[in-house]
Design brief:
The protein is an alpha/beta fold. The protein has six helices and eight strands. The protein has a domain of about 160 residues. The strands form three sheets. It has a three-stranded mixed sheet. Strands 4-3-8 form a three-stranded mixed sheet. A two-stranded antiparallel ribbon has the order 5-6. The radius of gyration is 18 Å and the shape is globular. Bound molecules: iron/sulfur cluster (2 copies).
Length: about 220
C-alpha cells in the first residue's frame, strides 16, 4: 500500500485524511486508495443524491486523454485533433485576461453534461474526471484537501498549455466559450509533472506537491517504528 486514506474525527464531524507511505506513489495509487476507502467504509459516504454532479468540474490533461481514449467514437471526436474537439464540444473554456479555466460543460440547468438526470448516474463513468474520482462526501483534513487541489490545478495548467500549443499547431483560432478581455499567454503555462504523461499511473505525487504539502503527507514515513 503506497497511500493510506483513513477516517479521522474532525471539528465538523466525521472526516478523512491521506498519508503517503511510499515516495514513489502515483496519482493512480491515490485514486485507488480513495476508491478502497469508499468501498470499505461501513457507513458509505455517498447516498446517491447527484448533487456533486451539479458543481463546476475542473479538468486535467489526463482527464481529457481518458475521455478521448475511452469515448472517442461515442463522443464523435475527430482523428486529427481530438483534444481540441473534446474541449470545443464537451468542455467550458473561460478566459479572463491571461487566466484560463477549463471545466466540463454543463446543461442549461447547471448539471454536468454527462449526468443522466433521470437515472442519476454518470454516463461517462469509465472516464470520469479526477475531481469526480477523488471526491469523498465528507469533511477532509487540510492536507487531504490541498493534495486534491494541487493535483487538479497542476493537471489543468498542463491542459491549458496543450490547448494553446495544439491550437497553434492545428492553425485553429482559440475556441473560448466565455471571454473577458481574453489574452492567454503560453509563457504562463510551464511544463510540469503532468507533461508528457498519458495516464495517472505515470504521474508521481512527489512531482506535483509543494514541498510543504509533501513534508506533511510523508510525515509518517519519518516516524521511528
Ligand atoms: S458523493 Fe455526496 S453529493 Fe455526490 S451523489 Fe453521493 S451523497 Fe450526493
Ligand atoms: S463526469 Fe460523471 S461523475 Fe463527474 S460530474 Fe459528470 S456526471 Fe457526475
Amino acid at each position: 500500500m503506497k497511500i493510506k486514506v483513513f477516517s479521522k474525527s474532525l471539528a465538523k464531524g466525521p472526516g478523512y485524511d491521506v498519508a503517503v507511505l511510499d515516495p514513489q506513489a502515483t496519482v493512480q495509487d491515490y485514486l485507488d486508495a480513495i476508491n478502497n476507502f469508499i468501498e470499505q467504509n461501513t457507513d458509505p459516504p455517498c447516498k446517491g443524491c447527484d448533487e456533486c454532479c451539479w458543481e463546476r468540474i475542473p479538468l486535467t490533461s489526463i482527464d481529457v486523454f481518458n475521455y478521448v481514449n475511452h469515448l472517442r467514437d461515442q463522443l464523435g471526436l475527430g482523428q486529427d485533433w481530438p483534444l481540441l474537439d473534446f474541449l470545443e464540444k464537451y468542455a467550458y473554456i473561460y478566459v479572463e485576461g491571461r487566466v484560463v479555466d477549463i471545466s466540463l460543460g454543463y446543461t442549461m440547468e447547471g448539471a454536468c453534461r454527462f449526468l443522466n438526470q433521470s437515472e442519476r448516474i454518470c454516463s461517462s463513468y469509465v472516464a470520469r474526471s479526477l475531481v469526480c474520482q477523488s471526491f469523498i462526501c465528507m469533511e477532509s483534513t487540510q492536507r487531504a484537501s490541498e493534495l486534491r487541489s494541487e493535483l487538479v490545478n497542476t493537471g489543468m495548467d498542463e491542459l491549458v498549455r496543450l490547448w494553446l500549443v495544439q491550437s497553434q499547431q492545428a492553425g485553429r483560432q482559440l475556441f473560448i466559450h466565455e471571454a473577458h478581455r481574453a489574452a492567454p499567454q503560453l509563457e504562463d503555462y510551464h511544463v510540469n509533472g503532468f507533461t508528457n504523461k498519458k495516464s495517472y499511473q505515470e504521474v508521481l505525487l512527489k512531482d506535483i506537491c509543494s514541498k510543504r504539502l509533501w513534508a506533511s503527507l510523508t510525515s509518517e514515513l519519518k516516524k521511528p517504528s
